[in-house]
Each structure stands twice: as structure tokens, then as C-alpha cells.
Amino acid sequence: MGKSADYTKYDDELYQVALLKNDEIAPGVYVLSLPRLHDFKAGQVVKIGLPEGEPPRMYSICSGEKEDELKILFNVKGGGWLTPRLAKLQPGDSILISEPMGDFTGDDEPAWWVASGTGIAPFYSMFKSGLGTNKTVVHGGRYLQNFYFEDEFLPELKDQYIRCCSQEKGGDVYHGRLTHFLEDQNNLPKDQKFYLCGSPEMVVETRDLLIRKGIPYGNIVAEIYF
Ligand SMILES: Cc1cc2nc3c(=O)[nH]c(=O)nc-3n(C[C@H](O)[C@H](O)[C@H](O)COP(=O)(O)OP(=O)(O)OC[C@H]3O[C@@H](n4cnc5c(N)ncnc54)[C@H](O)[C@@H]3O)c2cc1C
Questions:
Q1: Mean pLDDT of all residues in the chain?
Q2: Lesser CB count within 10 Å: N end or C end of the chain?
Q3: Cβ neighbours, 10 Å, residue 68
Q4: Pocket of ligand 1 (CB under 6 A)
Q5: pTM beyond cutoff 0.85
Q6: 10 Å Cβ neighbour count for 53?
Q7: Hey, whose CA ends up nearest to atom 32 of ligand 1?
């Protein structure tokens, strides 16, 4: 590990590490494994970049606070600069990473974790860091293959783990968007926090419907992947 010679052109200090693993867990969706250089709080983000090219982009850390490896869950954006390149990386390739940052962090109070797509990453980190008990997880995805880490969430959270699939039907999975699922709920707890993470469209729509249903604005916390 060493500091990138080029890091000074960015605001945040970037460290160069060698990639440990790059697993495609669904078509176009990858988990990168990197050495963990710094302590972090579950829910925080890092900037990720390559030694040459465009400035780094932000990614939620997708691993537990005590794990040796730091993981990132990302999907390839068509026409994007970084993600098509990340998808091609092989173990040993160089990658730049910042120190962890951000305050989208959880606690051990009962709460709802609402995610679309790769927005499940910070909640998986919280779950792997021991904050999963007393949480209700609502995960929205287009296809059944988009419920990343369901093998771990389901046995622990049971019916407190709700998958909402908009394009396919399957078993115990709610058929429809997560906003429709939430709209159908009549007894959302007004005294719990709702953490939202994912696309701007999902976050804005969910925020508005929660407010309509009487959830105090102060109990809605959001991380937007824009
Ligand atoms: C706090 C935060 C956390 C995030 N965490 C995650 C995460 O955990 N996982 C994850 O997958 N993503 C995450 N993101 C999103 C991530 O930072 C990147 O934006 C994303 O991966 C796309 O990067 P890219 O370089 O591939 O695409 P970019 O090059 O940034 O392009 C993004 C999209 O915009 C389009 N585009 C680019 N330029 C133009 C233009 N001039 N006109 C029109 N369209 C254009 C591209 O075609 C592409 O579809 C997070 C974002 C934030 C802010």
C-alpha cells in the first residue's frame, strides 16, 4: 500500500491498494474486495478511483466493521466512466481509495432500512456489524437476482426482510415497487427512523409517501446515489 503519486489533484487523499477479488454476483453487478486500511462506521462511504483518468466516485462500504476486507457493491452504468473499468479489474490491479467518510450511520434502535438496487450496501454493512436485530429491511429490485445477500438477510430477519420485485414474480417476494409496498402499509411506526438509500427517484418518492403517512420528517434519513 502506498499513497498514489497523483492523489493531490483530488480533494481527498487517496491510497493505492491492490485489488483482492472482483466477483460478478449478478449480471453487471460486482463486489470488489480490497484490503481494509482504515476503521469505519457501518454506513459510511469511500471514494474509489483508478490511477489514471477521471476523479473518483463515491461508494458505500459493503462489509462489516470488523472484517479484514473492505467490500464495495456496484453496478455497471452504461456509458459511465468508472464502473465499466472497475468491472474489468483483476486481482492484483491497482485501485485508489479514500478514507471512509459520511454520517449515514445506523444505531441499535429499531428502524426501517429501505433500499433500491445497490443501495442495500450500507445496510448490509450495518447488518454485518451487528445492527440487524430489530430492523425491518425493505429492498426493491427489478429482477429476482437483484436481492443481493438475501441468503444472509432472510434467515436472520425472516418476515422483517421484504423483497419488492417490480419486473418478476417469485415465492415470498412482493410483486411491485417498494413504494407500492410502503403505500399499502397502514401501521408504519411513527417513532422509528426510516433510513433510505438508493436512486434519487426512489428516495424522493419514498420520503414524500412517508411524510404523507405521518412519519415525522426528522425520522427520515437519506443517502442518495446520484
Ligand atoms: C454517497 C454516494 C454513495 C454511492 N454508493 C454507491 C454504491 O455503493 N454502489 C454503486 O453502484 N453506486 C454508488 N454511488 C454512485 C457512484 O458514485 C457512481 O455515480 C456510479 O457508480 C456511476 O459511476 P460511473 O463513473 O460508471 O458513471 P459516470 O461516468 O459518472 O456516469 C453516470 C451516468 O451518467 C451518464 N452520463 C455521463 N455523462 C453524461 C452526460 N454528459 N450527459 C448525459 N449523461 C451522462 C452515463 O452514461 C452514466 O449512465 C454512490 C453515489 C453517492 C453520491
A1: 94
A2: C
A3: 10
A4: 45, 57-60, 73-75, 77-83, 118, 121, 223, 225-226
A5: yes
A6: 10
A7: 80
- Cell numbers at residue 100, please? 471512509
According to DSSP H, which parts of the chain are helical?
82-87, 121-126, 150-157, 178-183, 200-212
Comparing 17 with 11, the larger pLDDT belongs to 17
What whole-number distance in Å separates Cα of residue 91 and Cα of residue 23? 10
With contact defined as beta carbons under 8 Å apart, do 16 and 49 qualify?
no
Spatial contact of 150 and 172, defined as CB atoms under 8 Å apart: no
Quick one: what percent of the chain has pLDDT higher than 90? 93
- For 138-173, how does the pLDDT look when each residue is reduced to its tens digit (9 = 90+)? 999 999 999 999 999 999 999 999 999 999 999 999
Output the CA angle 36-76-78, nearest 5 degrees: 150
Helix (H, G, I), strand (E, B) or coil at 59: strand
Report pLDDT for 12: 77
The phi and psi torsions of 46 (rounded to 5 degrees) equal -130, 160
Backbone angles phi, psi at 126, to 5 degrees: -65, -45
